[in-house]
Amino acid sequence: MTIYRDELEAILAKTATENKIVIIAVVNKAYVEGDKSMLDLFLDGFWHGDDTRGLRDHLLIVAVDQTAYERCMFLKLHCYKLETDGVDYDGEKLFMSGDFVKMMWRRTLFLGDVLKRGYNFIFTDTDVIWLRNPFPRLNPNETIDLQISTDVFYGDEWSESNKINTGFYMIRSNNKTIALFDNWYAKKDNSSGMKEQDVLEMLMHEGVFKGLGLRVRFLDTLFFSGFCQKSSDVSAVVTVHANCCRSISAKLTDLMDVIHHWKTFKNLPTNETLTIEWSKHLACINSWKF
Ligand SMILES: *[C@@H]1O[C@H](CO)[C@@H](O)[C@H](O)[C@H]1NC(C)=O
Ligand SMILES: *[C@@H]1O[C@H](CO)[C@@H](O)[C@H](O)[C@H]1NC(C)=O
Ligand SMILES: *[C@@H]1O[C@H](CO)[C@@H](O)[C@H](O)[C@H]1NC(C)=O
Ligand SMILES: *[C@@H]1O[C@H](CO)[C@@H](O)[C@H](O)[C@H]1NC(C)=O
């Protein structure tokens, strides 16, 4: 019997693929409650997606409050309760509110810890719906340290001019990526008004990726799509992220529509699938109006 150092070590070992890859999503109370919660919808994606059901075995749900943890346990997923030294993370965190930013930094620290334990991972926000297994679209070459989704993809998968989005990325555990997370987290107290994604982007533009010798691939929105820049091809799309959206309720409305469109798409005879258009994600567009 293997003796694990702590609970995190044990759950990582249990959840990882044979290549030591874990799929990690972080949730709080606001993401697990309601008639249809974001977590429910996220899991619906794995159910309705192509070749995605088995991925659930490698999904680790990281709960930042007790309700989220209990909901995760109830769903019989792999769950880990992240201790957050007394901060209340259980409400809805509006984009860029103080708690939203704090929660993200706690998450960055945690993910750096996962890398230090030797695990590679795919980080996914729960407002990213997985419609296909992403592995065939992720480059398996181990010299690539980070493959990260983009809000806007400009056509060159190696160009730092793409607009990164930290809502979905795959990262390998090695000294370079660990150093990247250390650099990233070190900016926590000196980046007021910026969320961790902006800080990563800033590091990139300051030349930190190149300085550390990181090989970073930027993912094409044709496959890793979102509301900022929709994939033009339903038959190619792997994930849909409710980015460029302000509130949970708007995301839920529009992602439910995505799943609805996906099911329609799957039920069409092949010669008619090209007639499908994506949902217009109007709730998200309207979520920025006051
Ligand atoms: C991985 O990429 C490197 C750099 O482009 C290349 O030299 C190497 O042959 C690739 N490895 C495999 C297994 O494709
Ligand atoms: C990382 O660095 C340490 C010491 O600097 C070294 O012992 C170790 O082999 C390195 N690990 C990898 C994966 O390169
Ligand atoms: C914080 O950032 C400013 C401006 O980039 C820099 O001048 C200052 O040295 C930084 N402080 C710390 C503690 O890193
Ligand atoms: C698809 O095929 C069916 C049966 O052959 C045909 O009735 C239908 O018109 C075709 N649809 C398109 C858009 O070509």
Automatic annotation (TrEMBL):
It comes from the Eukaryota. Pfam families: Nucleotid_trans (PF03407). InterPro entries: At1g28695/At4g15970-like (IPR044821), Nucl-diP-sugar_transferase (IPR005069). Residues 56-255 form the Nucleotide-diphospho-sugar transferase domain. This is Nucleotide-diphospho-sugar transferase domain-containing protein. It comes from Camellia sinensis.
